[in-house]
């Protein structure tokens, strides 16, 4: 679906079937809990306090900067932010208990995509953001606009796209005589991998996750598969998903050019260490993994090249997405603060200026089309080989695979992380049987 095809009718039709619910890996590691006023913002009698919970310290910093900007532009509607950064699981558990009990919830909260399901069951304790989201329906990419929704009502504002990308250690590639710009299809990727292994047999050409879902789910979506149906039902056992899982397994067991990520997933300390020491040459992961390099693998500065993932099908999707966090307003907010909170989320998340800031301050790929025309998205990066990595997102953002979720998305994600990828990659079990069993298990829950 292109952005020109998105209308109010199709926007709501898509939203009506879905429940928004990636994992903590989609955001930077959380720091210790804490609460303090926004930096540089004076607390005044005329200022309205908005409490905010999140599980990522960078999110606190971003909202503090947005509050400062808001207060500059709105002298008569000053905001004092009271943030609390808590561990991922603890925050979501505490939020669910608070909403169920009717007390203790914040005004505004970040809910990670794999945790959304329970918050949209029964009597939803979050305020609608449908009207404010529809104001931007011509610019917000539809694959993100309706994620955090139920029955036509949108409850969460997205944070990023999370487009899947290839990350190459070009220094290693050149040592092996591989030109990454000649890898334009999976056949050439496999051929490059075999050439690489002959030249540098002690270095992993590629690694995949066996205890997380991102490397597999990106290719499944690009292959035309989906973890959930458009109606929000578990959808693991499909020919497209089986084919993608078989392909990922073949890269490891048949072609011998891919390995299990050190530690099992690409956010393990062992994986960061291996990357940093030049023991890994390539991965495919969502765009938000890009910020992990300067934070966790500083020795790779100037060595990493970002490219698009090869197509799974010649006439298929150009890219797919992974991860996500939706920002919501709880129904425990004071009535006198509801409109202010809605207006602030619009200001901080939905405008073009906000989307450019999401890239500049978060390092994430924006979800508005027009943000990619801003000079900031064309800037080169010394870390990423002096190139403009966000142009790789721009190459594919108009042909992204849809990302459907639903009530049982958390269970689907957990099954992929703990069973499906481990069985396929570590044990070499049959992909068809793995996904058939996984589908039956989740349907029986």
Q: At CATH's second level, what is the architecture of the largest domain?
A: 3-Layer(aba) Sandwich
| H and E order | HEHEHEHHEEEHHEHHEHEHEEHHHHH
Shape descriptor reads globular
Low-confidence stretches: 1-44
Average pLDDT reading = 90
Count of DSSP strands? 11
Q: What is the CATH topology of the largest domain?
A: D-Maltodextrin-Binding Protein, domain 2
The CATH superfamily of the largest domain turns out to be: Periplasmic binding protein-like II
Radius of gyration: 21 Å
Strand content: 5-15%
CATH class of the largest domain: Alpha Beta
Map the helices and strands.
Blueprint: H1 8-16, E1 48-54, H2 57-73, E2 79-85, H3 88-101, E3 108-112, H4 130-134, H5 142-145, E4 149-150, E5 153-154, E6 164-169, H6 170-175, H7 186-199, E7 206-208, H8 214-222, H9 239-253, E8 258-260, H10 269-276, E9 282-286, H11 292-296, E10 304-308, E11 325-329, H12 338-350, H13 352-362, H14 390-396, H15 409-425, H16 431-443
Parallel strand pairs: 1-2, 1-3, 7-8
Antiparallel strand pairs: 3-11, 4-5, 6-9, 6-10
